[in-house]
Sequence to fold (145 residues):
Amino acid sequence: MTFMTHALSTGLAALAVATLAVPVAEAGPAVPAAAAAAAAAPDGFLYAWEHPHAKGAHCKWNADNANWAGCSDKVSDVWNNGFPGRREDVRLYNDLEWTGSWVCLHRGDSIPDLGANGLKWFGSGHGQGEPVNDSISSHTWVDAC
Fold:
C-alpha cells in the first residue's frame, strides 16, 4: 500500500467515525417533556396531567388523596415517580374515597397517553371494563399491586 492510499483510507475512516459520532439530538426533534421527566430521579410524587404527553393542567401528590378535585375525571397522562421501597406503587380509583374499580401504576411507570393506551379499569366495582382515560378520581400508595 502506498503512502497516498494509506493516508486516503485513514482519512475516510476518520471522517466516517466523526460522522457517526454526531449526537442524534442535533439531527432530530427535541426530547418531549414526558421523556425527560421519565429520566428524572425518584421524588416521591404521583404526577397527573390533563392532556397526553405532560400537557395542560397538572396535579401531583406525595400522599394518598381521596378526592382529586381539580384533576378528577380529566387526566390523560400519569406518572408514578415514587421512591423505591414500601408504598411505592399507586392504586388509581375510578371513584372518590378509594372506591370503584381500580388499576395499578408501579413505581417508575408512566402512561403518557391513557386514551391511546386503551387501559381499562379491571378491579371489581363501578367502572370495571371502562376506559381509565379521563375517569380517575382518587388514589392510594400501596406496598405492591
Q: What stands out?
A: The chain has four helices and seven strands. Confidence is low (pLDDT under 50) at residues 1-33. The CA atoms of residues 100 and 134 lie 15 Å apart.
